[in-house]
Every structure is written in structure tokens, then in C-alpha cells.
Amino acid sequence: MRNTTKRAYVLFALIAAFFGGLVFMAVSFVLNADAWASSRLNEHIYKYRQLATAGTIFDRDGKVLVETKDGERLYADDYTTRLATLHVVGDAQGYISTGVQTVFRSHLIGYNFVDGVYSAIKEGKGNDLKLTIDSDVSAAAYNALNGNKGTIAVYNYKTGATLCEVSAPSFDPENKPGDIDTDTSGKYDGIYLNRFLSGVFTPGSTFKVVTAVCAVENLPNIYKMTFNCTGKYKCGKNQYVICNGVHGKLNFERALNVSCNSAFAELATMLGTEKMTQTAKQLGFGTSVKVSGANTAKSYFDLSGAAKIDLGWAGIGQYTTLANPCHMLMIAGAIANGGQAVIPYVVETQTTLLPQTRSAINKNITMTAETAKKIKKLLRSNVENYYGDSRFPGLKMCGKTGSAEVEGKRSHAWFYGFSADSSFPYAIVVCLENGGIGYNDAVPAANKVLQALRNL
Length: 456
Hints:
Layout: H1 2-37, E1 46-47, E2 50-51, E3 57-58, E4 64-69, E5 72-75, H2 79-89, H3 100-103, H4 105-108, H5 118-123, E6 129-130, H6 135-144, E7 149-156, E8 162-168, H7 195-198, H8 208-218, E9 226-229, E10 232-236, E11 239-242, E12 248-251, H9 252-257, H10 261-282, E13 290-291, E14 294-295, H11 308-314, H12 325-336, H13 369-387, E15 397-406, E16 409-419, E17 426-433, H14 438-454
Parallel strand pairs: 3-6
Antiparallel strand pairs: 1-2, 3-4, 4-5, 7-8, 7-17, 9-12, 10-11, 13-14, 15-16, 16-17
């Protein structure tokens, strides 16, 4: 009798294990079927491990960025457009992980849960996608990089529609250099990285906007304060933050205009670690968002254990601070948009992967309308009273430059800002990696791109 009972228990256990396995397989199928169907081992979709059968990707005007013809992926006719849109479109091998061809692979190959990839096999193509990207503006941005590594991006700060998202170095996806993976000269460093979404760089003086926000919100008398710049600011015994000039006596607005290191180091030390950290967190440092299915890198601000001299350098965007260009663009967008930071997006077509895109708010960036109004006025003053409106003809620009020091290398040249013209609601970020001076190098690049957009 006992043996019979034991056999029954064993039988029940085997039955339970069998049905448990079925449930596990069913759940795995539901969760992973699209990944299995779009695997590079699927020869119906891939040829030599390269995507071959997939839908067409168009720019916002219907120009082809990539399509399938005779079992091959063919890219835009124009050479510069191919270089300029590589990182947003992605490569056929999937090395650019944030590219549309990788993120929306299952949609492009026409996968659905019922039929799998049957339609792609039968028709030789999948589903199409339309992007918000403008190929002409993207080409202008790639040319404006002028051979530098870096990124330039422009988006509508009201809707989030991204007109260009250019990263360099790049390569022609129809004629990929054979030495990319073996070169030791450094010319291809980070070539598969979309620097706009995934890069982080020392922000330099562009971070002074964060310090300015902290000052506006925590120092009631900030507009009555004056600073005396002697060319350096003492932060301890024989410890100084070195300024970019000798500016003499100046007020808060003028200090931002001329980007006075002394004044902003003094402000940072006056505000203190707690308030500076709180404002950085309030403006989204240490957080990430999804941009059309791809995660952005997190900007970094940490004053743990920082001495007074470290706090001074941090207040001017140095020390250990790092900024993601997409994040900085959203901060500019928030200032332009009354405190609301709209998340950029590049895919116009609605899909099951991306059911809603327009005007999604980044809740990690919080700014009151009053603060946004004050900072906007200061950034407009930068252009009017220092950079010059002549450097942005007809654009009514607001913005901030940066020349971020990098040990042993040229500075990163930054500019981010936006047009205050309501009929031209665009914000821009330029980051030229080891590209020189913000005022001399990033500002002309920004103007070239915005003028190309304005003249469409």
C-alpha cells in the first residue's frame, strides 16, 4: 500500500512538473517570441547577420532614409545624409543599440504575435516607420560639426519632435570602413555610440545655468548682489578657482553674461553642498528617460565629501560633474517652455511599442514658471549683451556657452539654448568633443543648423 501511495505521489509530481513546464514555455513564448523571431539567426530576416528584410524608414518629408530592395538594406541617396542620420536610423548589424533599426526591429520586420514574420517572408518587407528627423537639417548639422567628434540636436520644445540628432564620428552604412574594429589611431572611438543619447561630457560653463537656478530660488537678494572678480576666487588656503578673465565689479546678470568663474564659484560656495545638490537633482541630474524607446545616459553631479574648493569648481561645471547632451537640451526646453521639459522623440509613426509620443513631460525636471521666466531673461541677456544677436540673425536666441576643461586635451565646446520667437519654438544643443571654445566654435555651429531649419 505504501509503495502504491509513493508511486502516486511521484506520478502527481511528474504531472505537476509537466504542466509547470508548459506554463513556463507559454509565458516565455509570450514574452520572448518577438526577440526569437527577430534573432540574427533567422535567415528569412537577416543575410550574413545583417538586417535584410524590413520596412522603409522615412524622414518627416517622406524622403527614404533606409529601405529593402532585392533582399538588401539600401540607405539614403545622399552621402552626407547617410552619415548624418546613421546613429538615429541605426546600422544593419545592430551595433548602434539606440538606433531605430534596433529598437523597433520587431515592428520593422512586420512581426505580430499571431503570424510571426510571415508577412515579411511573403512580401519581402515589413512595416514602415516615419521619423520626425529632417534629412536636410541633419546634413547641415553634420557639416557644422566640421570634422569634430560630438553631437548636435534640435527639437521642438513644445511638442518634443526632434529635427536632427547627429553624432560623430560616423560612417557610411553602405560602405563601412574595413578597419573600424582594428584601428588604433582613435579616429573611430565611440563610433557606435549616439553621443546625444548615450554620451556624458564635462559641461563647463553650461552648468552655470544650474547654479543660476539655485541662486534665483535660494538667494532673495541675488539681483542686488555684486561680485569683485580679480581673475581668481579663493576657496581655501592657497586654493583658487581660476577665472577666464579679470572682470572687476559686476552684478549677477553680467556675471552670467561674461561667464565669470569667480562669481559663480563664490555663488556655489555661498549656496552650499545641500542646496546645489538639491537643485541638480531637481533639474534631472542622476535620472534617465526613454527617447523613442532608447534610454538616455544619466548626467552626474556628486558633492559627497567635496571640499570648499571642489564645490567652487563644481559650481562652474567642472570637478566630477558630467552632463548628457539630451538632458541639457531638455533643461533648455524647460526654460523655454515655462518650466515644463518635453521629452524628445524621433518616431512619428504610432506603434504598439510606442503608442504615444508627443508632448510627454519629463517629470524628473521640475522648474516653476517663475524661475523659468527669470532664467529665460538671463539667457536672452547673454545673447543680446555679450554674444550678440548678429551671431544668430533673426532668431531671437537665448542661450549659454561652455568651454569645459579636460585634462591633457582641448576643451569641449558647448552651446545650448532656444529661440524666444514663438513661431520658431526650437531648442538646440551643441557639444564638440575636445572642439575648442564655446563662443568661437559651438556658437557658429548652432547658428548654421538653426538657419538651415529656418530657411526650409
